[in-house]
User: Fold this.
Amino acid sequence: MHKVVDVEMGADLLEANNRIASDNHSLLRSHGIISFDFIGSIGSGKTMLIEAIVDILRERNIRAGVICGDVAGDDDFKRVSKHDVPVRNLNTGKECHLDAHLVDHCLDKFDLESLDVMFIENVGNLVCPGDFWLGTDKRVAVVSVTEGDDMIRKHPVIFGLADIIVINKIGLAEAIEVDPQVLVSDAARIAPGKPVILTDAKKGTGVEDLIATMGL
Assistant:
């Protein structure tokens, strides 16, 4: 009985999350905002990619907002704040992922009429965020070559759910003796047909390709 109750509670929780996520999606789309959930491990380069993207978008008069999700702290928030975009910090306290309810409250703090794009940087994790849709149009899963060439095949669920897969920090691949093509091949096998973009956010490599793939 205990296991049955746990399963039912889990199902109810996900159902409730998805209802709120659907409301979030409707809210963003009603303002003409396209939205992206960036998922990846700590250190994969999610923040730097978002920083590079918002700088390019600002030059094109595309107005972006950013939600920086973390368990605690505001380090990413402070970094993104330097790029002259509306940004909010969102701490989960203990949870290893953002959920639609947290995002709902955070969206209330933005002037949505003034935005074209919303980026949500999820908590650094390649497991928990997969179960919780936030209401975004697309999920962008980021993996760094510094994490090893087996990360995609070790986390097939999250990469299978992703709409776009990014292999970041390719400029370090040779130095750490990791072949990015192994990650590309794993992505093609686990998520056939999904776009895979190779980037080096620090140098700007591949960022334009990513923006184009995102439809921005």
Summary: Strands lie at 34-40, 64-70, 87-91, 117-121, 138-144, 164-168, 196-198. Confidence is low (pLDDT under 50) at residues 1-5. Residues 60 and 192 are 32 Å apart (CA to CA). The first strand starts at residue 34 and ends at 40.
